[in-house]
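User: Can you help me understand a structure? I only have the sequence.
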Amino acid sequence: MQILLILFMAAFFSFCRNPQKDAPPERDFVHPGMLQNKADLDFLKRQVKSGAQPQTSLWAALVASPKASLGWTPRPRKVIVVGFYSKPDIGASDF
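Assistant: Let's start by predicting it. Here is the structure, written out as C-alpha cells:
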C-alpha cells in the first residue's frame, strides 16, 4: 500500500511543476538568416570605402532599393512557399 501511495504522489507532483520555473532560460534572439560576422562586415565597409568592385556597385543598388528605405513596411511570413517557376509564390518575392 505504501508503494502505491509513493507512486501516486510521485505521479501527482510530476504534473504539478511550475512551468515558469522549469522553462529553459530565455536567450537573445539570433537571426537564422544572418551568416556574416563583424569581420565580414568590416571587410565590406573597407571595400566600399575604397571603391572596390563589385562591392561598391552592389552597395549602391542596396541603398537605392525601396526595401532599404526607412519607410518600407515589412510583411513577415510564418511560412514561405516557392513552387516550380515560383508558382505558388507565398512570400518568396518579398525578398
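Now, to help you interpret it: Residues 32 and 94 are 17 Å apart (CA to CA). The helical segments are 2-15, 19-22, 38-50, 55-64. Let me know which part you'd like to focus on.
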